[in-house]
Here is the input.
Amino acid sequence: MSAPAAELQNVSLSLRGISVLEDVSFRIEAGDYLALLGPNGGGKSTLLKVLLGLLTPDEGTVRVFGQSPPAARGRVGYVPQSFQFDRDFPIRVLDVVLMGRVGKLKLGTVTEEDREMARAALTRVEMAELATRPIGALSGGQLQRVWIARALAQQPELLLLDEPTSSLDERVGRSVWELFAELSQEMAVVVVSHDIGAISQHVRGVACLNRRLHAHPTRELTSEMLEATYGCPVDLLAHGHPHRVLHAHDDS
Here is the structure.
């Protein structure tokens, strides 16, 4: 049996003396399309960084495709919540996307195959026509799609996205959610988002994180589950889509 895309067991982590993750255990399977919900400061972005090997937990174990996170880093694509960069730096959109190919380059040289993969990634996010435009000339929503394309150019087996639709208008945001669903046929996809309406329509699994990963006895995304996560009443979300809500795992 192949290893899961990622597995955390009893992971706890404190940053600057503040507990951020507490005894978190769960698995991400190869075909998962998972949303990670929770309040600001609940540990969602931190959890992604643990999976990437950017942060090391104080306790517990983390495996990505059966390896340590640093060893598996070339198999994981990541789109952070925001990028800080010099908008006056003279670099084209296509060249930014090509950065996603750095770990795949043969002899350190960009080939025509690499360029084709970068162009294909731009096409998937509806940005192919802007391939030669300077990166600093793009809007916030266009930039977000370029960062997604850069992650896709890496050809990841696990794709981690931190609030990837926050800068997109409704039309483009909807198409990006559909893109994620398509990609989940090829790789595991984990999306951190506050867009509960979109989550209810598109993802196939939900995990609720507020320092602890909340276990729920139901597959449906209910107001009780959200209230337990956010700590305040949340309107009931009614929809017809089943969800696999991740439970706390033991060895059984």
About this structure: The beta strands are 6-15, 18-28, 33-37, 59-64, 76-79, 158-162, 188-192, 205-210, 212-214, 244-245.
